[in-house]
Write a structure and sequence with these properties.
The complex is a heterodimer of chains A (358) and B (371). Chain A is α+β, with helices and mostly antiparallel strands. Helices cover 49% and strands 14% of the residues of chain A. Chain A is built from 14 helices and 9 strands. In chain A, a hairpin with a 2-residue loop joins strand 4 and strand 5. The longest helix of chain A has 29 residues. Chain B has 14 helices and no strands. In chain B, helix 5 runs parallel beside helix 12 and helix 8 runs antiparallel to helix 10. At the A-B interface, helix 4, helix 5 and helix 7 of A face helix 8, helix 11 and helix 14 of B.
């Protein structure tokens, strides 16, 4: 007889998300997520704010990956207005977004190692994330929620000494990630815990609408940065990391290699950085019309559907959040698995409830 | 008909000049006990036992050990993490962190869950502490003369007693898990039962190879037999198996599946608060001490070593073993329960059987070899 266990809120590893698990012995038969604990009504809030005022608010939809979310919103607003931002701003956006992606991926890696009680990797990843946060503070003035990318460009130009400092941090991180590789990905026990756990096939991944690194781990070669380029991604050279296996180990490995790719992108962007202004004038009001744009965030594809009605407030804003789509994959996989695999599968998807609920 | 009540024999007064103490008159055999209490032998026994119970290996030693072990574990763990670790409490480097934690725990309320079985719930932490301390009574620590050892209770079968007592621990966990009446504690209790299956057979088999070589169940004799060569040399496989099985028995990460925090909160001990939780944590570190003592006695030559006092050698060896028991936590993630069972049955048991065969051959070879 299965027993229903609330694996959530008051649990050391659950975060804000409650999973109701039907447990038979030490085996999970069925899983039901209880979303909504952190629902803040961001979409409705957008209808009562000036479109510029909404930039810091959308960053709260996913504060582990703030700049990418701000970039998604800025792209939608600019597409609706038909504004083309200056070249230099595009490159600066790429730098902020990629730093934000590294920050998000390092945190995902920290949490995934925590699921097996592997605190060493948790602390190492979180420590090195601090360096990225310091770099972002230098660039944007804030550590976690930056409000750097705004419709029309970026708020400020590169600070003095940023290039040198970022080169130091990036080359340190480049050496450091091979320590991660040896400590985490070549660790036999970690492999035992994650390899073959939570296998999501290519067809299932497409059918369930899983996005981002989780989709690429299942063998689907899709990345919005390359396939629907925005900012300066079409002028930069980078690889899309794709693996076939689709298990928890591969999902972590995709993130690991994406950190390396992000380092490459930031280096290129800093090297090719053109001169010029960093922002342009935007019209004071949103024109009539509707637009759907997407960007690749650390957790997957973020879609923004924006309807303008002529005023300075959006008529309707719909956030299609990556974590919400990945949640479908999580529910699908958390069936007929041992209890010990639940946290591994959960954190291999890198789901953030703030992003699910919005 | 009246029962014959024996008349007490007249006793010499303890202090001359005073009348003899009015001793109660009890039926046999209790009258013998009363007589014994009045003799000087009793004072000797009391002092001897008191020293052992209160000083070494009793309360003082184990408290000091727990304090140092928790501090060393946290410091070591922090160094591997590239952190600093405890720093502010105590004279140097946060040495008194455990004292501070203990005082904090003493100040906390002991909460009993509404649906819990009260007696079983409050009994379990006491039992686990008592059980862990009981092991210490049977270990001979160092020789204090010809054929005499510093131990609380000397028996020829000390290893057998200890191995038999280890199988009691999961029952206390099942008691705690069931009495707490919580889904997570019940799951932890079931895991305790499974884990017993995984580690018990390899533990016994690897200890058996040492017993065969020494020809005795007596830990003192086993340690004495290692004067020439430590048993880690002929029994290296057995040492590895014993180490892993003991790690599973005392629930150290990566084999702390019973209390897996990320999965089932704290296993059977989820509901405990205050000093009951303190007792459980304390018992965990007493277990580490016992396991380190056992490995020292069985494989690392006991008290043998050049120069220093035997006790110093025992403490050095058990300290090194304790570090080995603790360091696994920062190097490996936790295994899953089915992986532990798989490793226990398909890897540890065959390896320990190979060790048994090696030990048998060695024993036979030593017999036929000219002395």
């Amino acid at each position: 007889m299965p027993v229903r266990v609330a694996w959530g809120i008051q649990h050391p590893m659950s975060g804000h998300l409650t999973l109701y698990l039907d447990v038979d012995g030490d085996y999970v038969i069925n899983t039901e997520p209880d979303v909504g604990y952190t629902h803040r009504g961001l979409e409705k809030t957008a209808e009562y704010r000036h479109f510029i005022q909404f930039v810091p608010i959308i960053e709260r939809a996913c504060n582990f990956d703030a700049s990418n979310f701000a970039l998604g919103y800025a792209r939608a607003v600019e597409a609706l207005m038909g504004v083309e931002v200056p070249e230099r701003a595009k490159y600066l956006r790429v730098i902020a977004a990629e730093l934000s992606r590294i920050m998000s991926h390092l945190y995902a890696q920290a949490l995934l190692s925590m699921t097996g009680g592997f605190e060493t990797m948790t602390v190492w990843s979180a420590n090195d994330r601090e360096l990225i946060l310091d770099l972002l503070e230098m660039l944007t003035g804030a550590r976690v929620t930056h409000t750097y990318i705004v419709p029309g460009g970026v708020r400020a130009d590169l600070p003095e000494g940023f290039k040198g400092r970022s080169e130091e941090v990036l080359s340190y991180l480049e050496r450091r990630i091979w320590d991660y590789y040896k400590m985490l990905f070549q660790n036999k026990t970690f492999q035992d815990r994650t390899m073959g756990v939570g296998v999501l096939s290519r067809e299932e991944a497409i059918e369930l609408g899983v996005t981002g690194p989780n989709l690429r781990a299942s063998g689907v070669d899709f990345d919005t940065r390359r396939d629907d380029p925005y900012a300066a991604y079409d002028k930069l050279d980078f690889n899309v990391v794709v693996f076939k296996e689709g298990d928890s180990y591969t999902r972590a490995l995709v993130r690991f290699y994406e950190i390396a790719e992000s380092i490459k992108i930031i280096r290129q962007a800093l090297k090719d950085l053109p001169e010029g202004p960093v922002k342009c004038k935007v019209p004071p009001a949103l024109p009539k019309g509707e637009v759907y744009t997407r960007v690749e965030t650390g957790r997957g594809e973020l879609g923004i559907y924006l309807v303008g009605a002529g005023g300075n407030r959006p008529y309707r804003l719909k956030i299609s959040a990556p974590s919400f789509r990945n949640l479908m994959g999580l529910i699908h996989l958390c069936r007929d698995v041992p209890m010990g695999d639940i946290p591994v599968i959960y954190y291999s998807f890198d789901i953030l409830l703030l992003d699910v609920d919005r | 008909m009246s029962l014959p009540i024996p008349t007490p024999s007249p006793l010499e007064p303890l202090i001359p000049g005073l009348p003899p103490l009015p001793l109660p008159v009890l039926p046999p055999p209790l009258n013998k006990l009363v007589e014994f209490i009045a003799t000087p032998d009793f004072i000797k026994l009391a002092v001897d036992l008191g020293l052992k119970l209160l000083l070494f290996p009793g309360l003082t030693f184990i408290m000091l050990y727990a304090m140092l072990a928790v501090w060393a574990e946290r410091k070591l763990h922090a160094r591997i993490h590239l952190r600093i670790g405890p720093y502010h409490v105590g004279p140097i480097l946060g040495l008194f962190q455990l004292v501070a934690d203990g005082i904090k725990l003493l100040g906390k309320e002991i909460i009993t869950p509404k649906e819990a079985h009260k007696l079983g719930y409050h009994l379990a932490p006491l039992l686990i502490m008592v059980l862990s301390m009981t092991f210490l009574a049977f270990i001979p620590y160092f020789p204090i003369g010809e054929g005499r050892y510093w131990t609380i209770y000397y028996t020829e079968y000390s290893l057998l007693v200890i191995l038999a007592l280890t199988s009691l621990k999961p029952f206390i966990m099942i008691l705690a898990g069931w009495a707490s009446n919580n889904k997570y504690t019940t799951m932890g209790a079931m895991r305790a039962a499974f884990q017993l299956l995984a580690y018990e057979v390899p533990l016994m088999l690897s200890a058996a190879s040492v017993v065969m070589l020494a020809g005795s169940f007596d830990l003192a004799k086993i340690a004495e037999a290692q004067a020439g060569m430590w048993y880690i040399v002929p029994c290296f496989l057995g040492f590895i198996v014993f180490f892993v099985a003991t790690m599973a028995e005392i629930c150290r990460r990566p084999l702390d599946i019973i209390t897996a925090e990320q999965e089932i909160v704290f296993g059977p001990w989820t509901e405990y608060t205050g000093m009951e939780y303190g007792l459980i944590m304390m018992a965990e570190y007493v277990d580490v001490a016992v396991a380190s003592f056992l490995v020292t006695m069985l494989f690392l030559g006991g008290w043998h070593g050049p120069g220093l006092h035997p006790l110093a050698w025992v403490l050095i060896k058990m300290g090194v073993m304790s570090v080995f028991f603790m360091i696994g936590r920062s190097v490996w993630p936790r295994l899953r329960i089915d992986q532990l069972l798989d490793a226990g049955w398909r890897k540890l048991i065959p390896v320990s059987l190979i060790q048994v065969v090696i030990a048998l051959l060695l024993v036979q070879a030593l017999k036929v070899m000219p002395a």
